[in-house]
Amino acid sequence: xxxxxxxxxxxxxxxxxxxxxxxxxxxxxxxxxxxxxxxxxxxxxxxxxxxxxxxxxxxxxxxxxxxxxxxxxxxxxxxxxxxxxxxxxxxxxxxxxxxxxxxxxxxxxxxxxxxxxxxxxxxxxxxxxxxxxxxxxxxxxxxxxxxxxxxxxxxxxxxxxxxxxxxxxxxxxxxxxxxxxxxxxxxxxxxxxxxxxxxxxxxxxxxxxxxxxxxxxxxxxxxxxxxxxxxxxxxxxxxxxxxxxxxxxxxxxxxxxxxxxxxxxxxxxxxxxxxxxxxxxxxxxxxxxxxxxxxxxxxxxxxxxxxxxxxxxxxxxxxxxxxxxxxxxxxxxxxxxxxxxxxxxxxxxxxxxxxxxxxxxxxxxxxxxxxxxxxxxxxxxxxxxxxxxxxxxxxxxxxxxxxxxxxxxxxxxxxxxxxxxxxxxxxxxxxxxxxxxxxxxxxxxxxxxxxxxxxxxxxxxxxxxxxxxxxxxxxxxxxxxxxxxxxxxxxxxxxxxxxxxxxxxxxxxxxxxxxxxxxxxxxxxxxxxxxxxxxxxxxxxxxxxxxxxxxxxxxxxxxxxxxxxxxxxxxxxxxxxxxxxxxxxxxxxxxxxxxxxxxxxxxxxx
Amino acid sequence: xxxxxxxxxxxxxxxxxxxxxxxxxxxxxxxxxxxxxxxxxxxxxxxxxxxxxxxxxxxxxxxxxxxxxxxxxxxxxxxxxxxxxxxxxxxxxxxxxxxxxxxxxxxxxxxxxxxxxxxxxxxxxxxxxxxxxxxxxxxxxxxxxxxxxxxxxxxxxxxxxxxxxxxxxxxxxxxxxxxxxxxxxxxxxxxxxxxxxxxxxxxxxxxxxxxxxxxxxxxxxxxxxxxxxxxxxxxxxxxxxxxxxxxxxxxxxxxxxxxxxxxxxxxxxxxxxxxxxxxxxxxxxxxxxxxxxxxxxxxxxxxxxxxxxxxxxxxxxxxxxxxx
Lengths: 606, 324
What we know:
- The complex is a heterodimer.
- By secondary structure, chain A is α+β, with helices and mostly antiparallel strands.
- Chain A is 52% helix and 20% strand.
- Chain B has two domains: 125 residues, Rossmann fold; 127 residues, Response regulator (Rossmann fold).
- In chain B, 44% of the residues are buried.
């Protein structure tokens, strides 16, 4: 499992490393934002949920405190009526001399709204006084009614009954009153003798009802009232409960302490707040269904989710923007460096974005500039080096030939062939004229061939026409350019190594022609030829010591051509033993020294 | 720069869509909170006295409150008139009632009209059903059992060899007919002499008719099987110097009062509060399901009370409903 997670993380890391900065930034930022906002949302939501519950509970507690005060006040006013009836009237009055009616009526009139009747009975249930109606029903068993029984059970207390229908008086109208009875035992005085009586104050049930109706009309839950045994005194849906269409958890609620309780009733979760009314032991119970919370929870959840979604959305776009701002300059810089990598020369490094990237761009620019400078320097140096090499190679020609020719002239003069010697010296002079070429290295092929002819003339005299010369040059290449003194060394080579030591008639052919836009000049002899292994050395080895001459010939020409025109040009040697040798010069076709090669351009600069 | 502008445009567009979504959902929520309270239901009962229906109406009001419907309570101008009730039915449907709760004044004559109407909208029958009411929801106590119980009450509260008269009244209602059947069945093996007092064409005033009948046929016990007839009987004999015992079915304020003062010996009554409340509940259910598939007859509780048991806590709560 752990290794799997590790693998997964590694994969993600790997994936990440191969993405652009912009992508990495925006994804990372967005993830962080997502997590942050999610965490914040959950926190806010739970905070809200708990605080909502607390607020509702607090409200409920305040509410039923208020109700408790009202109920208490209501009950106290009833007790005051009872007290004043007892202590100010009944205790003072001797029933044999006067009645209670006047004071009782006054008291009733003063509290008419909340009272149904005030009744004073003797211990046997017979009437002493009553208001507003005073004709008791016949065959009525007052002493069996619960308020009467209870008052007699605990004579020192006041007793509040549960709501019931008053069943005392004849009432020709069809009205029946729901009342709550407040009963107590009183001491009646009759002719100086005291006897036990019962004082009953019947409160109108609607008084209590009104108190609660008001509360229930603007409350999210509902409030009901039970007595200490759990019997319902008021419930907003009392009729439904009476008809057993609805059930209330009143009997359990009677066992609750004051305060807030969570309960499960008929599969519904609800919060119950209980408050006990003083003296009576009645309990006011506020019930709030947990659904009430869920309703507000749902709305809050909706809002939280919406706000978080909105914020994430905004952050996401901001991230995109920021990562674009950061990532894009880097990408551009990278692109221009890539161009550099691919060898693009017209350098234009991107400079922009934040300070660091600008700095980076500028540094790269200066580095590249410096590199270019260095490269140019190197090229120039190389060129210089090449030039000096070339010049030294060129310079090798003259002494070598001069040595040979002067050797011939010496030889002629020694054998007293003065006329020939004169022609020879003249030809030599011509040779040098061309050879100097006003200091130019580049001459036309015509001049080069002329030069070769002068040389051949000299050599022919030297060798007493031991060989034949054939020159076959295509006219169109006459005006093409070549570096000077390339044919003559080949002729020298053909004469010394080819035809000189031959027994028969030697023949040297010079052929010039154009092929594939390149110029070829072949120097062919029918001399001894040479083995293949020595052909290999001819062009490469400078240090080989020759038996004759200066030993500098073909490789010199070859190197000069290559230095000047490039590696694809130069000499090619074919030799067959006892049949002859062909040396082929390959040159680019160019006029006045102008051809497409780099060497030429740099050469002209000098 | 161009790219940035495009980006900003996209952001603004998406923000607009999001806020639109947000606002519409918010409005939807607040709207759904204040919805309801639009369903109109008409309650058509027989008789011209709304006093008789006080308890039913309380149940209806409680139901309307709990289920969030609006109620139009309609009584007739006379005690009995199938034509008028039919007219009322048509009128209430035309006035846009979504459902009807009906106590039929005449089970036979109303049958056709009610059946027709029930194909248009859901109808819940209460107290008195129509004949052949296949498929209609009917809420009532078991009328036959109520009849049995009043018979038993008569039997247990009186000595042997009594003469019992049954006031035949409103028998066009199936409920009353059923009660009659139950009562007659319960007393059929007793030694009581039974007589049926039925008003003829010539009898205009029921009170006079009753007095005349008592003169002609002095009975010990008179039984009336609905509120109206029981009230007529008690009002007729309240101050009458006779020892006739009265039994009956019904629970109007007057009847309870007469029971309390010993004019009536015992009554059987059904829990009309439940009847009203449940009728709304059933109607809402069938409106939601949009078809009358619930043919179950819901039994409403009934009780027998006499003067001694009237004030028992469990009885007084039903007999004297707390007006809220």
